[in-house]
Amino acid sequence: MGNDASRDAAGTTAVQPDFQLVQASPEFRQLRKHHRSFVFPVAGAFLLWYFLYVLLADYAHDFMSIKVAGNINLGLVLGLLQFVTTFGITAWYVSHANKKLDPAAEAIRNEIEHHDFDADAATDGSSR
């Protein structure tokens, strides 16, 4: 599938794509933009939420020890919400990747596999 060893064993030389040409393509730039526009804001928001929890746990003992139900206090609830947030963000990212990132990455991969980004094609102006 992805790594066809039989092709290399047959004595044919695999054509190496020009990865700098791939990175300079508008399709790759758009893919990178979609990835970064999701990952950086969500990661930043989660880190803020995490550090808020750590700071509250360290400096706001009275607030975190507020009883919610029985022996369950606000600190425990917020701590468990860290896990819920992590799983929620993971599910959200998977959904985002399936809708936007994976189709674009697949298209770029198909272009690479069909030699649209060959180093030879880039230098002599022809494609195979």
TrEMBL record:
InterPro entries: DUF485. It holds the Pfam family DUF485. The chain crosses the membrane at residues 38-60, 72-94. The keyword Transmembrane applies. Keywords: Membrane, Transmembrane, Transmembrane helix. The keyword Chaperone does not apply. This is DUF485 domain-containing protein.
